[in-house]
Structures are given as structure tokens and as C-alpha cells.
Amino acid sequence: MDKIKVIGGKTLKGSVKISGAKNSAVALIPASILAESPVTIEGLPEISDVEILKKLLEEIGGVVHLEDQDITIDPSMMTSMPLPNGKVKKLRASYYLMGAMLGRFKKAVIGLPGGCHLGPRPIDQHIKGFEALGAKVTNEQGAIYLRADELKGARIYLDVVSVGATINIMLAAVRAKGKTVIENAAKEPEIIDVATLLTNMGAKIKGAGTDIIRIEGVDHLHGCRHTIIPDRIEAGTYMILASAMGRGVLVDNVIPYHLESLIAKLREMGVSVETSDDQVYISKAKKLVAADIKTLVYPGFPTDLQQPMTALLTNAEGTSVVTDTIYSARFKHIDELRRMNANIKVEGRSAIITGPVQLNGAKVKATDLRAGASLLIAGLMARGLTEITGVEHIDRGYSHVVEKLQGLGANVWRETLTEEEMEQVKNS
Length: 428
Ligand SMILES: CC(=O)N[C@H]1[C@@H](OP(=O)(O)OP(=O)(O)OC[C@H]2O[C@@H](n3ccc(=O)[nH]c3=O)[C@H](O)[C@@H]2O)O[C@H](CO)[C@@H](O)[C@@H]1O
Ligand SMILES: C=C(OP(=O)(O)O)C(=O)O
Fold this sequence. Notes:
Blueprint: E1 2-7, E2 12-17, H1 22-31, E3 39-42, H2 48-59, E4 63-67, E5 70-74, H3 96-105, E6 107-111, H4 124-132, E7 136-140, E8 143-147, E9 155-157, H5 163-173, E10 179-183, H6 189-200, E11 204-206, E12 212-216, E13 225-227, H7 232-245, E14 246-252, H8 260-268, E15 272-275, E16 279-283, E17 293-295, H9 306-313, E18 318-324, H10 332-339, E19 343-347, E20 350-355, E21 363-365, H11 369-381, E22 385-389, H12 391-394, H13 401-407, E23 411-416, H14 419-427
Parallel strand pairs: 2-14, 3-13, 9-10, 17-18, 21-22
Antiparallel strand pairs: 1-22, 1-23, 3-5, 4-5, 6-8, 7-8, 10-12, 11-12, 14-16, 15-16, 18-20, 19-20
Helix pairs in contact: 1-2, 1-3, 1-6, 3-5, 4-5, 5-6, 7-11, 9-11, 10-11
Catalytic activity: phosphoenolpyruvate + UDP-N-acetyl-alpha-D-glucosamine = UDP-N-acetyl-3-O-(1-carboxyvinyl)-alpha-D-glucosamine + phosphate
Pathway: Cell wall biogenesis; peptidoglycan biosynthesis
Organism: Caldibacillus thermoamylovorans
């Protein structure tokens, strides 16, 4: 186990290259199960979620070669081996093994997923979709059992707009007989990326990226080569920290269109944001002004940037209200920001931030992935030394984060925890 140490206050400049999107990667890799010949995905982020999915595919008989950012998966020898616990619980996206294995083998046993603890994260809409396609779904001792004699296309209305349910239903439906229509589908760019891979594998999908997706099932899917989209959340995180501490930071390999809600907010706060086709250039404002933020489904402000943004708002003049409409309890980072002198109250689903304050370095713990990003940004803004534990959460979603920050001139490094520190972290 590691900790990250930051000495704050240094101006950041230069450029940072964004990696492939975590939330695409974790769906594209399981999608390969549906093919009958090798699938290559290029440009993956080097994160632990990818490593774990690789091992899970190997457990079911996949031959997987992962080198740097490229993976080749030969799914031809895979079987419907049950995956009831263990690694499955280490990430959220293991739920995509349900849709992909159901699509290919018409049966699967997958443990309930893990991922960030952000309040309740049910998967009832995934299950509703699988059942509508003809699967019998039961929950036995924390594992979901799925079985179907045959999958048949269906019209499925999602009661909640869900990224995971939209993709998972798509994964099963591409191998169902006949036509599936997903209504009230999520529209995130990662959904289009997965639909693009599936289409290159021979699937027939229309409407990905809109709220109605139409799928015509096919009997066979083949391998292909696919390049992943850039990670809009990683890009947004660097844009936010550049807004706090940057004197000219170029965020490279980004699709600015995916980040319009963030760009608009940063400009509202006084940050200068210039965009080109695949780059964003940020110059810190002379004075940041407070802004209210409400997280919404895409193209609204992403919940995954709510926590990083909270750190930035501690430096803005006035009172900001940040409301998370997607997750009821995505505020565990606030207690840690308070240790660093932030003036924030949580009321229901909102955090009320009064600024500006000078943050001070402290020993803090990342309780989830974006809490970790928020604390890193706070550490870079703070006076003195910040020590962040819970780094394994950060490693789920940020490729080479320390090296990328060092490249911008940050005074940041990683250390291994001593046994005594490890004990303290476990007990805290
Ligand atoms: C691996 C991955 O891609 N993770 C992302 C995905 O998570 P995830 O796919 O888990 O998030 P969803 O879009 O499904 O969840 C959105 C909301 O719907 C609710 N819900 C969801 C499914 C369901 O069956 N029933 C239900 O009630 C959830 O509790 C939440 O309140 O989208 C989230 C929302 O953009 C992001 O924060 C996560 O980074
Ligand atoms: C919540 C997140 O991830 P996951 O759904 O994988 O837990 C995230 O990426 O911020």
C-alpha cells in the first residue's frame, strides 16, 4: 500500500496527456467476450480496474495479452465459468460480465459488483432489462444467477437513466433474437464508444448517444481493432487543478465537446479556457468567483467531477452550492477537506462551500476514487505537506497520476506505507 505526499503552493505549467477513458475501458474489455475471434483495444488507461478485468477474463478461459495501453483478447476458448466473488467485488464494472456472458453463453453467475461507495447503487434496471430479454435472474448469497433458453429482443423502458444498465442491456441484446429498443437510455460518450466497438464486431445498433437505442440481434460477432476515446473525467480533473494552480496548462488528447458543462462552469468562475479539436488550454483566474453546481446525467455536469470541483470552490470568493442529484452520499471527501481548513457544510444532497480560504496541508484519506482526486487538488492548493492514504482508490482511475503531476511541475511523490501506518489506515 502506498501514500501520496504533496507539498502545495507550486504553480503548474506545461502539458499533460490524457489517457483512454476508464468507463469505456471497463465496458469494452468485457464486450470482447461476445466475439468469436480476437479483439484488440488500443489506448487503454493503465489503471487497476483494467488489470482486474484482464484477470477475470483469464479466469473464464480468455487468452489476454496486455502491454502498456493495448490489449488483445482471444475469447474463443472462454466458458461460462461462475465468478461469484473475489476480484468481481473490487470494481463496479464487473456487472458488464453479466450482460456479455448472458449474450454469449445464455448463462452467467457473477457476484454483486463493488466500486466506489457513494450511497446506494442498485442494479435493478440491469436486471429488469435482462428479464425483459427472457433471462431468469436470481440473487443467491450475493451472486446474480442469470439463465435463458433463448434471448428475445424486447422494448425496455429504463425507470432511471443509467449508464451501466444501458450498456449491459446493449451487451446482451446484440446476441438476442430480433429487435430490442432501450428507451430512456443514458447518453454518455462511453455508451457511443461501446456501441462503436460492438458495431465493428458485427452488431446492428442505432441511436447510441440518444435516449432511444435500437438493436437488431445477430447470430455471430467477430473480432476487430478499436481505439478508445479519451477520459473526459481525467481531463476534467486536470482542467480543474489547472484552474486552481496553473499558469498555462495544456490538456492534450481530450474531446472538448464531452466537457462543455465543465468548460461553461470554469468560465463562469473566471477561468480562461481555450479549446481546439483535441486540446484545452487553461489559465488560472486572477480571482475565482463562487458558482453553483448541480450534477446531472450527460450532457449535464458529471457527478464524477463534483468532488474535484468542490476542492477548487474552496478557493472561490463567495458561497457555492454543489448538489449531487445522482448519488445521495458522495460527500465523504468533505470531512477530509475540512481537516485542511475548508469551510464546507453538507445539507442533504448539497455541499455549501464558503470561500476563499487558504487550505493547509494535513494527513487525509481518500475514501473513493474521486475523493482521492479532490484531495490531490486540495493538496496542490494547500500550504505545506499533505499526505494522502487510500491511494488504491486513485489507482482505479488515474493512469500515472504522480508522474503526470510531476510533469506539470508539482511537488508530489509516492511512498510505501510502513507496517505501522498500514495498521493505522486499516483502523481509521
Ligand atoms: C463504471 C462506470 O461507468 N461508472 C460510472 C457509471 O456508474 P453506474 O453505471 O453505476 O451509474 P448509473 O448511471 O447506473 O447510476 C445513475 C443513478 O441511477 C441509479 N440506478 C442505477 C442503476 C440501476 O439499476 N438502478 C438505479 O437506481 C444509481 O443509484 C444512480 O443514482 O455512471 C455513473 C454516473 O454517471 C458514474 O458516476 C460512474 O463513474
Ligand atoms: C464512481 C466511479 O467509478 P465506479 O462506477 O467504477 O465506482 C468514478 O469513476 O468516479
